[in-house]
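Q: My collaborator sent me two sequences in one message, no labels, and asked for predicted structures for both. Can we handle them in order? The first one she listed is below.
A: Yes, handling them in the order given. First sequence, followed by its structure tokens:
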Amino acid sequence: MSAWRHATAADPPERSGYLMESQYATQSRPNDVLAPRTGRPASQRTFLVTGSTGFLGRALIARLLSEGHTIRTAGRPVDAANASASASIRLDASVEEWRDAIDGCSGIFHFAWSTVPGTANADPLGDLDTNMMGTVRLLEALRSSPQVPVVFASSGGTVYGAAETLPIAEHHPLRPLTAYGASKVAAEQYMLLYRRTWGVDARIVRLSNPFGPGQNTNGQLGAASIFAARALNNQPIEIWGDGSAIRDYIYIDDAIAGFLAAMQAPRSRFGVIEPIINIGAGRGISLREIVSFLSHILERPANVSFTPGRGFDVPASVLDITRARSILGWSPTVSFEEGMSRYITYLKELPGIRGEW
């Protein structure tokens, strides 16, 4: 018996079977990135999103729903705002359950990952068991539906390791310094293996450091968002190292547009190259520069504390996005300064911000 069921807007967020489906009867926008080439209404397209309760997953789902698409999700139960898109298929689900989830889908966004760079080293086996096995089961299910494109969210900030040159292009050697980066590389290799051997339409996006509305500012990932929230709350900003570390920060709307472009591109667009694309701003910002900009727009100095650097933090990571521009026709549209200004405005409207402006 199939575990599939339809979700409705009346479903509470905690009500979820293995698999659920949601469709909003919204009118597709004229510039719908995923408008099908078949002439069917965009609302008839169905996408599976794993990692649906994470930062990227929630932002992507909001975008897809706004364009009238049908969404199947995989992840933890979501909050009330996304109740109608609530679903859960665990990463340790069987291949048969993954096949059930994939059936009828136009594409898959594989965002699910249970660790972050700062935690994976503490439990490499757990990282491997959960993330790698779930990814391979998904790929195994796709052997029977190889025409369904799957876009995998890899990590442009961890798979390359210490950069030999900047900006970092996709052909740069892969030398991860964390279990998180190593498992992302391994997942990439399985994606490519299933593409070469069984024709699975796997596509890999190496994302830089996304920031913006919806990011968890109480976790260990997302320095730009965390710094902004703490500055607004007049809380100390903790910096590992001396603040000179440079990263490539991309606003969440641009990141989502990059994933959509990777999904929409015809398979032939990749030609003879492996379908690996850097998505980032292509510009480096140091931690000190983030603090300086926050102090400027808030018109008060930030309270900063420094702690010893972590061994896996590389001095600089900036992505070369030439391939994304040429193959996908995608480019970032929101500068760091504009994105941070938008994010500050968003944070000011949230309850619980104690800062004075």
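Q: And the one she listed second?
A: Here it is, processed independently of the first:
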Amino acid sequence: MGKISKSSRKGKKAWRANISSEDIEEYFEKSTKDALSGGSLAHVPSHSLFYVDKSVDLSAKRKIEKKRDKVLHYESVLQRNAFVQPIPSSIQKKPKRKNKVVQTVEGDAQFEGKGPMDIWGDGGRQNSKPKKMQKPSIIPAVEVEPPGCSFNPPSESHQDSLAIAVADEMQKIYRKELGPDPIPLIVPGESIDEETMYFLDADDGTDDDELNEDIVQTEDMDLEKRPLKTKVVTRVELNRRTRRKEQLKEDAKAKQKKQLSKEIDSLPDIMEEIAREDEEKQKKHLRRTVVKQEKLASAPPRLGKYKYDPAPLQVLLSEEITGSLRKLKGCCTLARDRFKSLEKRGLIAPSKRSGRFVKGFFFGVSWKQKNVKCSIGHSRCCFICLQSPSYQRNYAKWLPFQNAI
């Protein structure tokens, strides 16, 4: 090993430079650690370092209960956090309806011990949800027919009722005649031969060729008419166009000012026109309200697929009036009258009147509808059934169906 080099000892400054400072640095490091850890253990009193354990050992049952009381990780995750706001969509609204009050056994026992209940008292009142009241109908439940519909009516009243019934029937006939014509099942026409079809196709081809030739000729003439050179726009022409644009703008502004001054002068007339329009709107609204009330008084609102079809007026003809109830001919039934009254008041939706079966036939619908049976039992009226003599003899009035096949 080599010798350690000796330092110079010529002066005091050299002696101070060679003095070691490791102990001072160790002291500062130790004091810093003690300050960070809470102080030096040498200066801490004994009662703070040591304590006497006086707790009693828990039994096995208590340990199990303590383990059960411990909150698991998934339970802590599912618990509500006060710092986390809930999602608005997950907040449930409080139900508006009240829960039914359930009578307890104690209440029943107290009730039995009190004695007889007073039916007019408030003790037995329960909290019940009020029922929704229906809107009253303008149409009365039982309508009184005019005096002309009686079994022995006066002559004038009877003629008035007959006129109303005839007017209703004629209105139905006129509405049917003036309505759109139905689509015919068969369109009359003549069959076209193959030769005629060939000539028609040939004519169509020649017309197309002529049209194509005309189009080509017009295009060639347009190309010939086009100028070969574009006209050069000079500075004078550009200045003229600029002046023209400015003049048009000034004319438009002057016209706008003139129109504005004219509108200002005609302001009283505009106010009168606005007031007149408001008055017309109010009158129109009043008319609509009156028409709506009249419509509700005569027919119910639209409830279903079908409209309400009012029942015909039950009026007797002149030869049917006998003047006695014993000789009166039976016409309408009470059940049908009540059913029409329910439909008119809007309590039930109007339905379509179905047909009726008579000896295997289904009256009231066309022969092309489903579930239509003929006298033999076929699902639809076929050509054989329509040509059979029994059909022509017994059901001659249904022969027009033969032309529809």
